[in-house]
Write a structure and sequence with these properties.
- The complex is a heterodimer of chains A (about 270) and B (about 350).
- Chain A is α/β, with parallel strands linked by helices and about 270 residues long.
- Chain A is built from ten helices and five strands; from the N terminus they run αββαβαββααααααα.
- In chain A, strands 2-1-3-4-5 form a five-stranded mixed β-sheet.
- In chain A, α3 crosses α4.
- With about 350 residues, chain B is an alpha+beta fold.
- Chain B has one domain.
- Helices cover about 30% and strands about 20% of the residues of chain B.
- Chain B has ten helices and twelve strands.
- The longest helix of chain B is centred in the last third of the chain and has 20 residues.
- Chain B is globular, with a radius of gyration of 22 Å.
- The N and C termini of chain B lie far apart (about 45 Å).
- The model of chain B has no long low-confidence stretch (mean pLDDT about 95).
- Classes of the chains: A alpha/beta (about 270), B alpha+beta (about 350).
- At the A-B interface, β2, α2 and α7 of A face α7, β11, β12 and α9 of B.
- The complex binds iron/sulfur cluster (4 copies).
- The site of one iron/sulfur cluster has 11 residues of chain B, from α7.
């Protein structure tokens, strides 16, 4: 943590970056994002196991990126998101510097995003055991039971879109669900509207979702919507040789190959 | 009507629940789902929980549902038929376990829905609701009712307010309205005469953190302050704060057509979304998140008291609890009060 503060201070003093995005203490033992612009405020920066919000979501926000070059405290999921964002031309070496935090909680600084990418590629995205078990359970359900499971789980969703707002990959200025003339998917949060919203979102994140759980952590109603994107990751692995964000990547959903398997289509 | 104070035994609450069911009341009370407390239709007393500080969502859905089909139409050979909401189809609801900061919110919401146009659907729904409030013996860091004129034992907005007299104790029942008396008449025997009870002793102490009139005055010259950007940089621009808030009333109208029939639906909306103010021309008068955050605070602490003589915030703290970015409204109001610009 001292390393992080020291480095942030140096960067701001040298005007190497305009803002350092990191974590600070929040309400009731939570942590939250802080945007440090003055060297004397770097003492507020913290890092510990409570820091789970994906700060990459802020890198595409207007009022943040307009400040100038950003440095960001980035754990592995945040770095993955950054690489995916770089491949989608949302961040680059001239607007972003990564203050990495290794899985061992050590500060690691990268010269450029290519170095971040090499670091990210040392690790595979692994779905945690608890969610894996849940997914297996859902897989084994007969179709009608699975349908009912999702209808029930998604019923409370009131379409606050906190999941979308907290997702680093949902940076679209106008999300598909926001169109109402014509409506692509029903806007109201009734049964069909909720179902279509969540299917649409999961599909848009196939091959892009970095499994950071930001969506689930953001949901005020604790709807397990991350199971859908996790399922997409498993499919990507089984049918398309896996998924690892890469700066120059062929995007899973927008790349066609004649030998693509079609056996997962129901 | 002066409040009638009675005593109801702890064990008698279940009997009261049953009596209300026998009288064909739909009871909506706090229940646990996915680790969150929400208001749900309760068929059994055991489904209701009493172990909560505040529900995740407010009770506003009883009069202002998140999705309300306000009319249905169909076309046929004879012409067009349009059907609105029939008040007879709205059930008689007893809202059970409402905290004082939620009960008072119903009045603030009513002020909006009756500002100039009287919203018939909202008023009809509300006319069928009886509010059973429960005072607070616990609070958390997010609660600030006392800073906006409320308190943990406030009777405003409840038809009956129950206050538990100590942990595991019996309840004081303050019967406050005609609707409240009607509930008592359904189980008269359960409501005993109360001796002298000092209710305040059993309420949690929620310290006053700011003065809402001071904040209101400050806001009259605060529109251009840099504080808004400072506060809202971490705001992600979602609808969580508005949707859980007992007094947020914004809605959107959507038409859903299926061939020759369809419906018009009223859906919750939020000033936190960029789409909320987007014009057809592409121009957006609230272009960035800080302007949207400013609107949220201004509306509740300046525009509403100016136009409707009520504040748009009850201090329930729900928005802060639900916020994915930990935007803590109490902290922000304190810093507005303290700001020098
Ligand atoms: S769900 Fe799809 S359209 Fe909507 S913001 Fe996310 S990626 Fe964009
Ligand atoms: S899943 Fe949760 S966070 Fe996402 S829109 Fe629904 S209620 Fe909001
Ligand atoms: S304050 Fe929080 S809940 Fe409200 S719009 Fe911003 S991020 Fe969403
Ligand atoms: S603004 Fe926040 S604290 Fe105030 S009434 Fe709404 S949800 Fe409660």
């Amino acid at each position: 943590m001292d390393d992080l503060r020291k480095r942030a201070k140096e960067l701001l003093e040298a005007s190497a970056v305009k803002v350092v995005i990191g974590y600070e203490n929040g309400t009731e033992n939570k942590t939250r994002a802080i945007f440090v612009e003055k060297p004397e405020d770097t003492g507020k920066l913290i890092f510990d196991s409570r820091c789970i919000m994906n700060l990459a979501s802020y890198l595409t926000k207007h009022e943040v990126k307009n400040k100038g070059k950003m440095a960001v405290t980035a754990t592995l999921p945040v770095m993955r998101a950054i690489i995916q964002l770089a491949s989608e031309f949302q961040v680059n070496d001239s607007n972003l510097l990564v203050l990495g935090i290794t899985p061992e909680s050590k500060l690691i600084e990268f010269k450029d995003l290519a170095e971040v990418e090499s670091f990210v590629h040392k690790y595979q995205i692994e779905i945690d055991v608890r969610n894996k078990e849940m997914l297996d359970k859902i897989d084994k359900m007969p179709a009608s039971e699975r349908w009912n499971f999702w209808i029930k789980e998604l019923a409370p969703c009131f379409k606050c879109y906190a999941c979308r707002a907290a997702c680093p990959m949902c940076y679209c200025h106008r999300c598909t669900v926001d169109f109402n003339q014509p409506q692509w998917i029903p806007v109201p949060s009734h049964e069909l509207g909720n179902l279509e919203w969540h299917i649409m979102r999961a599909v848009h994140l196939a091959g892009r979702c970095v499994d950071c759980d930001a969506c689930y952590n953001a949901c005020p109603l604790a709807i397990p919507l991350n199971l859908l994107t996790k399922r997409m990751l498993i499919d990507a692995k089984e049918h398309f040789g896996g998924y690892q964000p890469a700066i120059k990547a062929e995007h899973l959903m927008s790349t066609y190959k004649p030998d693509d398997k079609e056996n997962f289509i129901l | 009507m002066n409040s009638d104070r009675r005593l109801i035994r702890k064990d008698s609450l279940e009997k009261l629940f049953k009596a209300l069911k026998q009288n064909n009341k739909t009871i909506i009370g706090p229940a646990l789902q996915n680790g969150k407390i929400s208001y749900k239709i309760s068929n059994n007393y055991s489904e209701i929980t009493s172990d909560y500080i505040q529900t995740t969502q407010s009770s506003k859905e009883i009069a202002f549902p998140r999705t309300e089909k306000i009319l249905a139409y169909s076309k046929n050979a004879e012409g067009m038929s349009v059907k609105g909401i029939d008040i007879k189809d709205i059930p008689e609801i007893v809202l059970w376990g409402v905290r004082p900061c939620d009960a008072i919110g119903i009045g603030e919401l009513s002020a909006i829905f009756n500002w100039d146009y009287k919203d018939e659907i909202f008023n009809n729904r509300l006319s069928k609701v009886t509010v059973l409030g429960f005072s607070c013996s616990k609070a958390d860091e997010y609660c600030f009712c006392t800073s906006v004129g409320g308190n943990p034992g406030n009777t405003e907005g409840s038809d009956i307010l129950f206050t538990q007299l100590g942990e595991n104790g019996d309840y004081l029942a303050e019967i406050l309205t005609e609707k409240g008396s009607l509930i008592v008449s359904m189980a008269e025997a359960l409501f005993e005469r109360a001796g002298k009870v000092e209710k305040e002793k059993f309420l949690v102490d929620v310290p006053v953190r700011f003065n809402h009139e001071d904040v209101r005055n400050k806001l009259t010259t605060f529109f251009e302050s840099g504080e808004w950007v400072q506060q809202s940089l971490k705001c992600l621009g979602c609808g969580a704060c508005a949707y859980v808030c007992p007094t947020c009333a914004c809605f959107d109208i959507q038409d859903e057509a299926h061939g020759k029939s369809g419906s018009r639906v009223r859906c919750w909306d939020s000033c936190g979304f960029s789409l909320f103010t987007l014009h057809t021309s592409g121009h957006n008068p609230r272009e960035v998140q800080s302007q949207r955050w400013r609107q949220r605070i201004m509306h509740k602490f300046s525009y509403m008291p100016d136009r409707l003589s009520v504040f748009g915030c009850t201090g329930c703290g729900r928005c802060s609890r639900a916020c994915p970015a930990d935007m803590n409204i109490l902290e922000h109001l304190i810093s507005i009060q303290e700001a020098t610009v």
